[in-house]
Amino acid sequence: MKGWTASDIPDQTGRTAVVTGANSGLGLITARELARRGAQVVLACRSETRGAEAAERIQAQAPGAYVRVAPLDLADLASIRAFAAGHKGDRLDLLINNAGVMALPHGRTADGFETQFGINHLGHFALTGLLLPKLLAAGPGARVVTVSSFMHLLGTVDPRDLNMERKYRRWAAYARSKSANLLFTHELAHRLRAAGAHLVAAAAHPGYAATNLMSVAPKMEGHRAKQRFMEIGNRYFAQSPEQGALPTLYAATGPDVRQDDFFGPPLQGLWHGSPGRSARAKWTLSDTAGRGLWAASERLTGVRYEALAS
Questions:
Q1: N or C, fewer C-beta in 10 Å, the chain?
Q2: pTM, two decimal places
Q3: pLDDT confidence band for 1 (50 / 70 / 90)
Q4: Which InterPro entries does UniProt cross-reference here (predicted)?
Q5: What is the average per-residue pLDDT within 33-49?
Q6: Given this model, what pLDDT does residue 168 score?
Q7: Which of 70, 59, 58 has the alpha carbon at shortest distance from 30?
């Protein structure tokens, strides 16, 4: 996959993809490139207005692209259930769990979960489970791709304190949520293998990409100096969002993607470079931790993966 670019994406005609957080950043690029190659893409966005603006941008940049917007708030289980119910009659080949938040001040989702864990992991766990029958029905080539981060290396998941009740530290909470993304992918891949399913579960990370993700928290808190610092980092040290989206696009469309693969910039770069199989913390490959997180996620969200039940 050395030197792989968006121009190498195979034809996606006849396939349908859902991309969460597709109104900006990596999600917008991912949705655009899939649509450019012929996929019908659902932009799953919290703001329908911003989603509609993103759809217009994609159609302007990729004439003939088919995209539509559907409201989805990953911080609200009722919204997730409504989104999944609205997709019942449609084919689904690709689910790109891209949306996320980073290093926010302490907060709660509509259902009382710590915001970063609730959106980055639990929201996508619930969404994937509710859309699973459609993904399984799509047959060979169907994939679930969950976007993690190289920051997962800095945080393990503590099953005794998933919501960080003891002591909240924003970056630790973010790292934990990204570790949870990989543990989820690991356990989902295990269950898909056991069921003999064609669906592949893989993960990706963008390295350090120039998006607005890092500046959201300083903006929320009114810290203009921190916001400016993040913007300078994006300008001088980060790679473009187009480059950052490549690992996700490879995980979604590459020819040799296996269960539980993790793609990102190569080991020697971590932050920059063409997609390759990426460095990964050993604890995200723990069967015990994966099963524990899965059980807790089912309990907290009320979503059961009945199609994979043994």
A1: C
A2: 0.91
A3: low
A4: NAD(P)-bd_dom_sf, SDR_fam
A5: 97
A6: 93
A7: 58
- Whether the CB-CB separation of 15 and 93 falls below 8 Å is answered with yes
Strands 94-97 and 143-147: parallel
**CA 91 – CA 122 distance, rounded (Å):** 24
Residue at 215: amino acid letter:
S
Distances (CA, A) of 89 to 59, 134, 199: 24, 9, 19
Give residue for tokens 């543990």: 183
d(CA 310, CA 294): 14
Identify the CA nearest to 148 among candidates 190, 189, 188, 178: 178
- Flag whether pLDDT at 69 surpasses 90: yes
Token look-up 């709660």 returns 108
Residue 6 and residue 242 in contact, taking contact as beta carbons nearer than 8 Å: yes
Residue 226 pLDDT level (bands cut at 50, 70, 90): very low
Q: Please name which of 31, 39, 33 lies closest in space to residue 8, comparing C-alpha atoms.
A: 33
Write out the H or E segment, with its range, that includes residue 254.
none
Residues present in the chain in total: 310
Nearest to 101 by CA among 83, 80, 75, 119: 119
Is pLDDT larger for residue 90 or for residue 119? 119
Residue 224: Cβ-neighbour burial (10 angstroms; 0-12, 13-18, 19+): exposed
Provide φ and ψ at 216, rounded to 5°: -65, -50
pLDDT in tens, 248-263: 999 999 999 999 999 9
- Reduced to 3 states (helix: H, G, I; strand: E, B; else coil), residue 308 is helix
Burial degree of 155 (CB within 10 A; 0-12, 13-18, 19+): buried
**Any idea which of 251-260, 269-278, 300-309 has the lowest mean pLDDT?**
269-278
